[in-house]
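User: I'm putting together notes for a lab meeting next week and I want to include a structural view of one of the chains we've been expressing. I don't have a solved structure, so I'd like a prediction I can at least talk through. The sequence is below, exactly as it appears in our construct file.
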Amino acid sequence: MKTKNKTYNVKVARTEQEKIKGLQGIKELEKDEGMLFIYDEPQTVGFWMADTLIPLDIIFINEDEEVLSVYKGKPLDKTIAEEDNVKYVLELNQNSGIKEGDELDIDDEEDLPTMKVIAPDGSVQMELEGGERIFSRKNTKTLIRMAKRADETKSDIDYKRLGNKMFSYIK
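Assistant: Thanks for the context. Below is the predicted structure for the 171-residue chain, given as structure tokens.
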């Protein structure tokens, strides 16, 4: 992610869980680090600093990669900063120097995983890029619950149940 005179190394929050967690609990952030939140479509978003331990600039950005506003977030503050027509939100250390009207260069295709769906004969049936869904939300929740259980118990039986459930959903 780049501004006109600085490059930032940002973690990308794409999933709902990553967006909820954000930078909560982080005790220190390097000068050139931050977090970029990406939304599928421009929308109204609200951010707060509950459970966030460091002061942040919360930078609301539209789909043209132009800064709409910058909110100065105070640690542990529960005030909600809200903005309309937001495609991206960038969190950086406070006093980043980014201001309303600045234009940013955001490569939101960066680090997108590609998953290949392989046919029984070994050919590629399709390629899915990050954010695409192959299971319903309900089935995804079930698989996540089962995966967490298997990870906690380290039981071969729980891993086998998870695998069987996944293959039954794929059929």
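A couple of points you could mention at the meeting. Helices lie at 16-21, 137-153, 156-170. Residues 5 and 113 are 29 Å apart (CA to CA).

User: Perfect, that's what I needed.
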